[in-house]
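Write out the 3D structure for:
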Amino acid sequence: MSFTIKVKEELIGLGKEEKTELSAIIKMSGSLGISSQGLTLSVITENAKIARHIYELLATFYQVKSDIRHHQKTNLRKNRVYTVFLDTNVEQILADLHLADSFFGIEAGIDQVILSDDEASRAYLRGAFLSSGSMRDPESGKYQLEILSVYSDHAEDLAALMRKFLLDAKTIERKKGSVTYLQRAEDIMDFLIVIGAMKAMTEFESLKLVREARNDLNRTNNVETANIARTVTASMKTIHNISKIIDTIGLEGLPVDLQEVAYLRVNHPDYSIQQLADSLSKPLTKSGVNHRLRKINKIANEL
C-alpha cells in the first residue's frame, strides 16, 4: 500500500463529517450533467473507500441516496474508476456548499467563507487531499506532497489555505492542471497534523529519522574510509622514501632522533601517527612525529 493511500484511509477512518470537506471533494472531482429531472452530479475517484465516504457524506448532510457505479480503465494499469452519481437536489446541494458559482464558471477559487475560518480550512484541505492529493513515500528520501487542481485560481487559494497554517506552499503549472505542493519534510508533517492524519505523521517522522540516522552513519563511514586512505597513502610515500634512504646512505646516515621513527614506520606501515608516537622509546606528540616524518621525506627528496 502506498503512503498516499495510507493517509487517505486514515482520513476516512477519522469519522469526521464536515461540509467543507465534501465541498472540496465535489469541487475537485465533480462534474455536472443534465437529465429530464434536472441537474445530475458525478463525483469520480479511483478509491472504493473514498467513493463510500462521499456517499455517506451526501446521505448525512442532505438525506439523499446516490448511486456508486464503477468501470474498468482501459490503460495498462487497469484501475477501477468509481462514480458517485446523484440526480436529486443537486442545485440545492451546490448552493449550500457554495459551489454553484464554481460549476457555472463564475468563481474558480475557494469561497471566502472557507478561507476565513480555520476549522473550515482544515476540513477543506482534508477533502482536497482525499480528492487529488498525493505524496512521495518518505522512505525514498525525496519529500513532496501535491494536490492537483483544474484551475490556477483554486491552486493559489489552496496554497493560501496552507500558508494560514505556516506551511511553505507553492504552485506550479503542469499539463493536467495546476499543482499546489510542499517540499520540506517539516511542512509535510505539519500538513498531516493540520488535516488530522496523526498516525501517518508519526510514521512519516519515524521513517525520516531512520533514514537520516542511516545517512549520518554512511557519511561517518565514508569520512573514516577517506581518512584511512589518506593515512595509507602518506604512509606508503614515507616508506618509499625510507627505502630510498636505506639504499643510499642507510638508516644510520639519518640523525639519531629520526632513526627510530623511520624504523617503526617501515616495520609498521598500518600504524596511525598516534600509534607511532605511542610506540617510541620516548613518546612524542602526534605533531612531533609528523615533524620527524617530514624531515625524513625532505632528506629523501634531497638525495
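The chain has two domains: 1-195, 230-300.
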